Write a sequence for this structure.
């Protein structure tokens, strides 16, 4: 099982932004969606998830709203702001450049 | 948008802490709940699922703390902790804290008190609508750059200009107010009917003047000032509609002006009346007696308006060459005409106060530096225990902010008192001309300025310890014998601060020295008269009663006779158009028959004086004779000139026996019968213009001034003189009774010089004290650091004298550096205030030398104390102490 610390610093932010770009989601659902979408490889633990969420909210990239969740209880739903959408594009392209560069090195070696 | 979002979140973290915490709690609990549900759905028993989920969360509290960090909640917490710590630290060191706060407060107090005056005079907008579009309008001539308009010129300017939305005129005009107890002087002003509409001021009660109420024959009306309404009519609404008798004519009061309204160029009038052009001067194009105020058309700049006005004046020159030749036009922003007089003085005071504030801040920075040096071990220890430099900087900044806030708050409080004191020190006649300074006190502007200064102070005070963090080396900080390089760095920083302080003190001292010398010169300027035991009293007789020359002369003869009989009166003289030092600018036009003349204007102040006038003043006759009984009412006209007139117009040879042709009167040729040495007619610091004196008996006016040489007891005599004048006719008013010495002391130029010299002198004294204390601190610290070195030197046989010399030369180097930098800056600073200096150049070498000597002597004296301590170091003890 891959531990959250294995994730490159800052990638959690990118994953969160990407996941909630589709629809507003609460913390637990975000963690589950990341796990599902990565084919059960990436597991974002709560210790990384919640501080990231709060930091992103402080940055103004995401905003939070309380709503009733699918199990009938109040949950905090996060959605992307305009600034967040822009940040997502930048982070994604940045990530693609970085991962591409790393793969190039890994393959040639 | 993002900034606002972030700010919103931060503020929420700070102020709705509880709800933020609750949400955090609920959010994490929800997550836990879902985990448990998932584990239970997977077939786990509820207790096991709970345990599993909680383990996966790795401690709820830690997660919360991380979220708090991310939200910036800890920032607020840290600040609260820092503040508590800073306050505890400051409380533990009451000596340091009190000194720092007091020194800061002193600087703040001076700076804010002067700022209050600057704010009221130069920053606060004038109480008119859109004051930036208002302009003051003048005529110009060879003698005065900004002189009055004549009424006919005003009418032409008003009609022909293409620059103004409206042009109106005003004139100071003291009235005689008839009351049941006889006539009373009443300050007043005459204005054209549109004056208040041009300013954009509306009466609070009643109505403004209607257009046309300033034409001859219109019913006489008057507006009341708010102060006069309160004082004379007890603020009753029925004041409007009542009748006031001004100069013998009944005027219906039609309204009351707003409380905040003021218009300094006319002082503080009680009554404002429409200017009906009925006085003889109003009808004469040559007679200049009014000033203009205009509102510019939208889109017209001041420069464009001026060039338009100049064109109009040039047309009038062509059209009326006899009266308007060389009469030009000038225009300045109205604010400049109203507060321009006090501008240079306030700027000098403001500069001085800011320098004092600067020096006090630097002084406290030195104290903070010394203290952080003493706290090096504490800093090193905290760094060793893991405090980040960011946290340490935050800690120092918080301490600096606490000090600056304390100093600022105390400074504002003290400034309130200082403002009251400074206002009380303003002489009455000076204050009357500056209505915009009324009601000064600590207002929102002062608080805002105080806050800005305190913030700057906090920034300055956090610099020295923060520099120290970067340089402090953990090991040497913790080591017992911390005498290494760090100490030298601190000392060098402290020395720099002291050099800055000494240089600043030098600038203030030089300023004070120059201003004092200037005051000294001013008070010893040759007046051309003997001012001791000379008293003056202005007499205003009603024109309606004393309407002809014989009637006035009869009155004057009676007054002179009655006053001459009073005990203690040596001699008495009479003059029209004012007396020395404070006279007005009435001039007459003339030309010289001996010189080619092409219609240009020669202008000279005119004084009409009685035969005894010059001898009563103690003036000096240079040539010819004074006026006497030969120059009576119907005798041929003669004139006496002053030395400046003789020098200007008769440079080669005796002027007595030559002639002038006067234009204003009948254009007759008048022989010169005497030359009197220059009398200082105007302000003490103004150049003496050529002056023409004429016999009083030939030109008397119903307003004149008595000058009396007394044997002593001047103040009592002035009262008796006033009583004896009123005894003749209680319709006559006397005013402005003063001893000549007081008149000189209270004159504007004397007051400006005196207050500048004293205030800047006070600033300089405090600055000198602060800088010398700063120097003492640095030298004493250096001695304490070099205790061991000195011990070794002494043990090796260095004589006491050489130790003295070593310490004094260290101090001397700092003093020399400070004085050198100070002299250079003083010369630059003094150039800025050279307009205020009288009889002293801005680079006056004796003043600079004396001031530098004073600074050096006091500073060396202060360094003697630590030098003595150094010289008396016991080598055995200092070495053992290591």
């Amino acid at each position: 099982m891959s531990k959250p610390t294995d994730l490159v610093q800052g990638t959690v932010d990118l994953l969160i932004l990407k996941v909630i770009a589709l629809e507003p989601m609460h913390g637990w659902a975000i963690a589950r969606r990341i796990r599902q979408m990565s084919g059960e490889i990436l597991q974002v633990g709560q210790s990384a998830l919640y501080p990231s969420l709060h930091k992103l909210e402080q940055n103004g990239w995401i905003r939070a709203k309380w709503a009733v969740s699918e199990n009938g209880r109040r949950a905090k739903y996060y959605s992307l702001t305009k600034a967040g959408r822009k940040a997502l594009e930048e982070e994604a392209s940045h990530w693609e450049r970085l991962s591409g560069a790393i793969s190039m090195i890994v393959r040639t070696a | 948008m993002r900034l606002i979002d972030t700010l919103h979140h931060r503020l929420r973290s700070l102020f709705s802490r509880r709800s933020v915490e609750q949400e955090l709690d609920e959010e994490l609990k929800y997550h836990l709940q879902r985990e448990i549900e998932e584990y239970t759905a997977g077939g786990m028993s509820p207790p096991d699922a709970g345990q599993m989920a909680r383990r996966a969360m790795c401690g709820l509290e830690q997660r919360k703390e991380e979220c708090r960090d991310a939200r910036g909640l800890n920032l607020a917490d840290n600040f609260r902790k820092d503040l508590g710590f800073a306050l505890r630290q400051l409380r533990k060191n009451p000596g340091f804290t009190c000194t720092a706060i007091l020194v800061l407060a002193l600087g703040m107090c001076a700076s804010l008190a002067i700022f209050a005056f600057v704010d009221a005079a130069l920053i606060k907008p004038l109480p008119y609508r859109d004051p930036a579009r208002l302009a003051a309008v003048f005529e110009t001539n060879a003698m005065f750059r900004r002189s009055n308009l004549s009424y006919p010129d005003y009418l032409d300017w008003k009609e022909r200009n293409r620059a103004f939305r409206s042009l109106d005129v005003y004139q100071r005009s003291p009235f005689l107010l008839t009351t049941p107890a006889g006539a009373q002087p009443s300050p007043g002003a005459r204005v054209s009917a549109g004056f208040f509409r041009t300013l954009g001021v509306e009466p609070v009660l009643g109505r403004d003047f209607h257009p046309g109420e300033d034409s001859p024959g219109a019913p006489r009306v008057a507006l009341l000032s708010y102060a006069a309404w309160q004082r004379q009519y007890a603020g009753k609404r029925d004041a409007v509609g009542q009748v006031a008798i001004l100069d013998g004519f009944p005027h219906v009061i039609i309204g009351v002006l707003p409380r905040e309204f003021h218009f300094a160029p006319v002082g503080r009038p009680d009554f404002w009346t429409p200017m009906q052009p009925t006085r003889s001067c109003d009808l004469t194009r040559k007679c200049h007696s009014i000033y203009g105020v205009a509102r510019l058309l939208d889109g017209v700049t001041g420069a464009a308006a001026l060039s338009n006005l100049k064109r109009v004046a040039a047309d009038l020159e062509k059209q009326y060459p006899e009266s308007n030749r060389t009469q030009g036009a000038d225009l300045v922003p109205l604010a400049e005409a109203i507060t321009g007089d006090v501008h240079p003085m306030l700027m000098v005071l403001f500069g001085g106060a800011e320098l004092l504030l600067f020096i006090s801040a630097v002084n406290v920075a030195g104290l903070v530096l010394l203290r952080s040096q003493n706290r090096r071990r504490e800093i090193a220890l905290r760094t060793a225990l893991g405090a980040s430099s960011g946290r340490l900087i935050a800690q120092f900044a918080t301490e600096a902010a606490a000090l600056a806030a304390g100093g600022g708050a105390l400074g504002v409080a003290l400034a309130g008192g200082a403002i009251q004191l400074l206002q009380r020190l303003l002489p009455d006649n000076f204050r009357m001309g500056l209505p915009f300074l009324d009601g000064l006190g600590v207002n929102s502007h002062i608080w805002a300025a105080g806050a800005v200064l305190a913030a700057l102070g906090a920034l300055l005070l956090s610099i020295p310890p923060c520099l120290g963090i970067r340089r402090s080396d953990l090991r040497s900080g913790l080591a017992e014998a911390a005498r290494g390089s760090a100490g030298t760095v601190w000392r060098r920083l402290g020395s720099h601060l002291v050099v800055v302080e000494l240089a600043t003190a030098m600038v203030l001292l030089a300023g004070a020295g120059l201003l004092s010398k200037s005051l000294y010169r001013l008070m010893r300027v040759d007046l051309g008269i003997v001012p001791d035991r000379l008293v003056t009293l202005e007499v205003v007789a009603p024109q309606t009663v004393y309407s002809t020359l014989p009637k006035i002369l009869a009155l004057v003869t009676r007054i002179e006779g009655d006053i001459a009989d009073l005990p203690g009166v040596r001699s008495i003289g009479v003059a029209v158009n004012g007396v020395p030092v404070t006279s007005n600018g009435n001039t007459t036009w003339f030309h010289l028959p001996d010189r080619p003349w092409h219609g240009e204007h020669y202008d000279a102040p005119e004084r009409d004086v009685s035969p005894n006038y010059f001898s009563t003043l103690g003036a000096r006759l240079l040539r010819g004779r004074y006026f006497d009984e030969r120059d009576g009412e119907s005798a041929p006209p003669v004139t006496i000139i002053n030395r400046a007139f003789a020098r200007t117009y008769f440079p080669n040879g005796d002027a007595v026996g030559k002639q002038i042709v006067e234009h204003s009167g009948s254009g007759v040729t008048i022989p010169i019968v005497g030359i009197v040495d220059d009398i200082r007619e105007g302000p003490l610091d103004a150049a003496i213009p050529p002056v023409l004196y004429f016999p009083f008996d030939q030109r008397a006016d119903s307003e004149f001034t008595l000058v009396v040489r007394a044997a002593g007891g001047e103040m009592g005599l002035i009262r008796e003189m006033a009583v004896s004048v009123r005894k003749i006719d209680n319709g006559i008013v006397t005013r402005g009774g003063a001893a000549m010495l007081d008149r000189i002391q209270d004159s504007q130029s004397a007051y400006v010089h005196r207050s500048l010299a004293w205030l800047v002198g006070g600033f300089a004294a405090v600055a000198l004290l602060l800088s010398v204390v700063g120097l003492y601190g640095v030298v004493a610290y250096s001695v304490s650091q070099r205790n061991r070195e000195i011990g070794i030197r002494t043990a090796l046989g260095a004589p006491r004298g050489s130790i003295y010399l070593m310490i004094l030369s260290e101090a001397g180097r700092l003093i020399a550096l400070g004085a050198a930098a100070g002299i250079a800056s003083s010369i630059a600073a003094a150039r800025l205030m050279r307009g205020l200096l009288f009889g002293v150049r801005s680079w006056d070498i004796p003043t600079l030398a004396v001031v530098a000597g004073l600074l050096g002597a006091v500073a060396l004296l202060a360094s003697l104390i630590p030098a003595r301590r150094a010289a008396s170091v016991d080598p055995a003890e200092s070495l053992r102490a290591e």
